[in-house]
Amino acid sequence: MKIIILGAGRVGSAVAESLVSESNDITVVDQIRSNLTSLQERLDLRTITGSASHPNVMIQAGMEDADMLLALTGSDETNLVACKLAASLFSTPTRIARIRTTDYLNHPDIFSNENFCVDFAICPERILTKYIKKLIEFPGALQVLDFASGKVSLVAVKAIHGGPLVGRQLKELRHHVPSLETRVAAIFRRNHPIIPEGSTIVEEGDEVFFIASTHDIQAVMGELRRMDKPVRRVMIAGGGRIGQRLAEVLQVSHQIRIIERDLRTCESLTQNLHNVLVLHGDVTDEDLLESENVSEMDVFCALTNDEENNIMAALIAKRKGARRVIALINRSIYVDLMQDSGIDIAISPAQVTIGSLLAYVRQGDVAVVHSLRRGAAEALELVAHGSASSSRIVGRKIGEIKLPRGATIGAIVRGLPPRDIYHQESSGTEEDDTADQPNQAQVIIAHRDVVIEPDDHIILFVVNKKMVQQVEKLFQVNVGFL
Questions:
Q1: CA distance 167 to 202
Q2: Which of 42, 43, 197, 300 is the 20 to 30 A CA-CA neighbour of 10?
Q3: How remote is the C-alpha of 478 from its chain's centroid?
Q4: 219: Cβ–Cβ under 8 A, 6 or more apart, which residues?
């Protein structure tokens, strides 16, 4: 696939790196030559220096025969204009724009073909807010990812000493919680994947990924570790876009404090947030953190635009007694260095965002993609089409499907209504969870004898993203069926 990426910032660079590794033809456009030089030194792609929304620059980048435009610059207006030009001048089939301004997102008609011709509007800040909110809702989880409109969740937890299943075989999980259906999709032990089998023994320190109905997540987590107390008190370091969004969605149900060093931002936060204590100061000020009782916080979230400050603030908060600390860290080398540092969860904004884009690049009917373990692994939701005569999936038992080793079917959701092509992020609503909406969808945890039916949503875990193309081929329908 020929893809043009506008913007070589953190999001654009991370997306380019991910897509290049999948043998796509990538061209990146940016006004800052040094950003492009860094990319070219590491990756096999083309770069163009120039303004992302200028037609001549688009022509140089090859927009005339591009399959997809990813407008990921830091300017909403540039991204909107680029999508409009790509549609009207070059008839680019798929156009995706990064949009940060809530005002635009709240008026989805702006993205229609009559206006700016945006097929999909992605807001990294909104995605990150939802991601962090899930981590706060499920204390103890390393990741909580939704599938099938929120009906199924994939959760990563670290097995700790004293957990009921630690030191036992996986097949005993069913005996511990006989009323719940769940499946362990993967285990990472000392950063190496282990293919889970019934006889696999869970060890202390294992990173365990399991799939279950969203309503059953808390009960299953209790089998792998002692349950943490519910989160009530949250301190947020940084009152920027992400910090403010998180405070907005948590303020009704939690006690929130925000520390922000910019006085004008503090004044704006005070006007817009009604149940939040806004503090003016430096997030790395030990005396300030101590005086504001950081030791009593259930969660401390370091969400400033400065990753060094996030690291320092999180480490100080942990040392001062905060129960759990979360830090936004952009550079992957920093994330690696933070392993076992005291920071409970290091979040890469670019990696959290990438999944929303990958669903468009994947072959076949891919509903959801989540990038895991800093891009090394993936979880996918694919829709099965065809019949027993035209598909290698439909009409077959899971035990008969020849998946590549390292790929695991975790769950099936049957009976979901027909879907449009995922405009969830451009729907204009802050919360798009639909797990509690009434419909007849059935969650089926995967077992060898379960038979795949047409239009089933299949949730898979792939321990190595290099296997994704093999998985996609399994879901392709023979030409005769089409």
A1: 5
A2: 300
A3: 32
A4: 177, 180
| Residue 257 clears pLDDT 80, i.e. is over it | yes
- If one compares 452 and 182, the residue with the highest pLDDT of the two is 452
3-state secondary structure of 206: coil
227 pLDDT band (50/70/90 cuts)? low
What does pLDDT average to over the chain?
A: 88
Residue ranges and CATH numbers for the domains of the chain are 2-122 (3.40.50.720), 233-323 (3.40.50.720), 352-475 (3.30.70.1450)
Q: Which of 34, 73, 74, 76 is nearest to 57 (CA)?
A: 73
473-476: long-range pairs with CB below 8 Å, 24+: 473/363, 474/392, 474/393, 474/401, 474/402, 474/403, 475/364, 475/365, 475/382, 475/383, 475/384, 475/385, 475/391, 475/392, 475/393, 476/363, 476/364, 476/392
305-344 tens-digit pLDDT: 999 999 999 999 999 999 999 999 987 777 767 766 789 9
pLDDT confidence tier of residue 90, bands split at 50, 70 and 90? very high
Query: Tokens representing 438?
Result: 């009434």
Q: Would you state the structure tokens that stand for residue 48, as one six-digit string? A: 């163009």
CA angle, 259 then 260 then 262, to 5°: 160
Instruction: List, in order, residues 6 or more apart from 308 with CB less than 8 Å away.
Output: none
Whether residue 427 has pLDDT greater than 70: no
Instruction: Give CA–CA dist 242/220, Å, rounded.
Output: 30
Token pair listed for 476: 């392709």
CA angle 334, 339, 340 (to 5 degrees): 140
Instruction: Indicate the DSSP class of residue 149.
Output: G
